[in-house]
Amino acid sequence: MSNESFLKVSKLSKSFDSDIVALEDISFTIREREHVSILGPSGSGKSTLLRLVAGLDRPDTGTIELDNRSLKNIPEYKRDVGLMMQGVALFPHLNVFRNIAFGLKMAKLDHNDIENRVNNLLDLLKIDSLRNRDINTLSGGEKQRVALARSLAPAPRLLMLDEPLGAIDQKLRQELLVEMKEIFSQKGVTIIYVTHDQNEAFSIADKIIIINKGRIAQIDSPRNIFLRPNSSFVAEFMGMANLIRCDVVENKNSSLVKSDLGDWPLSSFLLNKESRLKKATMLIPFYAVNPNGIEKKGVQAVVQTRVFYPGYVEYSFQTTKGLKLKARINMEWKMPVFEDRDQVSLDIDMSKVQLLPWKLSNS
């Protein structure tokens, strides 16, 4: 049975130059063999967190435990933690085989053990044909595979990757993400994958930790992050929902949610907070907005832009009261296609709309 708190981070804080707070009161646990993505805007503290776990920096407060062992006084080379940075930093004077074997030789492993480990990784990552190649002759994708093999070679129980695919094109990135997830599962290694790219985070992770301005905004499964963001910041950062300000007005027999989109009973909404709200954010997922021809019963709007993506069309609308809304419609042969400046009626599926405290960021 896997360890439910293989990595335990408790109340971790870190500041630089006394007044620059990088992390504040960070706490979470990761199960053994779990794949976790840490997601957040640039400068949110993601890389600092990895450096603290790896032992490259020391926290101001808080504790880090790996498999029930405190890492406080453990130097980085004894932590059983691997770290793959964005810049692959391969040794240009060593060929592929010797790059992968470098850490093993430094650890003074037996020659046969080194040969076996490197050969297995060359085969696993489908780069056996590159074993004797000069690093400077490799493509970007090939270098990423070699860097990953070198990170896996010491067989760390925890492998952390900091924006590892940031320098390669989108198509190759998607291919590598699929391969990496398969490899991590085969090797049985626990993964922390840091990125600011939502697609990468969702592709690789069993669990997502969203960080903003040094604090945790939400920890949840990819499904719940998508369907149930717990704050306006998370929804706004993920870029997957319309955020509309509204008021909750209590009457004798019922409560109404009033906004420029219209009035609805409070009971129509998904409520993420127990307390009663007066000022609120209506969180309307893009997929909950459905444009139709002119029908008086819906929200009247005009098409501002239409962009085609693989699998869906994204529309931007402006309502008659000046609100801007987006919709994503799955690509189908029978779906209606609207042009710029077309007048439409927007049906909103209220069963998918959440009500959150009013706040467009957690600043």
Could you please describe the fold and organization of this structure?
This protein has about 375 residues and is of the alpha+beta class. It folds into 2 domains: about 5-225, 3-Layer(aba) Sandwich (Rossmann fold), CATH 3.40.50; about 235-355, no CATH class. About 25% of the residues lie in helices and about 35% in strands. The protein contains 8 helices and 21 strands. It has helices at about 45-55, 95-105, 110-125, 140-150, 170-185, 200-205, 220-225, 230-240; strands spanning about 5-15, 20-30, 35-40, 60-65, 70, 80-85, 160, 190-195, 205-210, 215-220, 240-250, 255-260, 260-265, 270, 280-285, 290, 300-310, 310-320, 325-330, 345-350, 355. The strands form 4 sheets. The protein has a 6-stranded mixed β-sheet, with helices on both faces. A 6-stranded mixed β-sheet has the order 13-12-11-15-21-14. Helix 5 links the parallel strand 7 and strand 8. Helix 2 (about 95-105) packs parallel to helix 4 (about 140-150).
Secondary-structure blueprint:
Elements: E1 7-16, E2 20-30, E3 35-39, H1 46-54, E4 61-66, E5 69-70, E6 81-84, H2 96-106, H3 111-124, H4 140-152, E7 158-162, H5 170-187, E8 190-195, H6 198-204, E9 207-212, E10 215-220, H7 222-227, H8 232-238, E11 241-250, E12 255-259, E13 262-265, E14 270-271, E15 279-285, E16 289-292, E17 299-309, E18 312-319, E19 324-330, E20 343-348, E21 354-357
Parallel strand pairs: 3-8, 3-9, 6-7, 7-8, 14-21
Antiparallel strand pairs: 1-2, 1-4, 4-5, 9-10, 11-12, 11-15, 12-13, 15-21, 16-20, 17-18, 17-20, 18-19
Helix pairs in contact: 2-3, 2-4
